[in-house]
């Protein structure tokens, strides 16, 4: 994190004063190539979550608006055929092919 000190100052200014997203800050920094070390967007979010920067989640507008909804799983039930008791009586005679046992 010490290697990224200049970038951190840049990121804090853009996020706090200009309301940029962390992803936008990283993207601009990579495009301009003005810093020795530029962390990934995920790393920047991790630093914010861990409290290593003066930026907090309240400063990130999109992160506050997003809701983390759990995944809904549908219950997969196997559709079974008819029960042995419900079969027609003609099957019991075993005269037709396929009804042998």
TrEMBL record:
It comes from the Bacteria. This is Integrase.
């Amino acid at each position: 994190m010490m290697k990224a000190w200049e970038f951190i100052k840049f990121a804090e200014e853009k996020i706090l004063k200009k309301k940029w997203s962390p992803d936008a800050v990283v993207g601009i920094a990579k495009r301009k190539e003005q810093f020795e070390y530029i962390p990934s967007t995920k790393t920047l979010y991790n630093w914010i979550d861990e409290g290593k920067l003066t930026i907090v989640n309240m400063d990130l507008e999109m992160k506050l608006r997003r809701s983390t909804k759990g995944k809904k799983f549908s219950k997969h039930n196997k559709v079974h055929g008819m029960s042995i008791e419900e079969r027609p009586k003609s099957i019991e005679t075993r005269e037709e092919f396929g009804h042998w046992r």
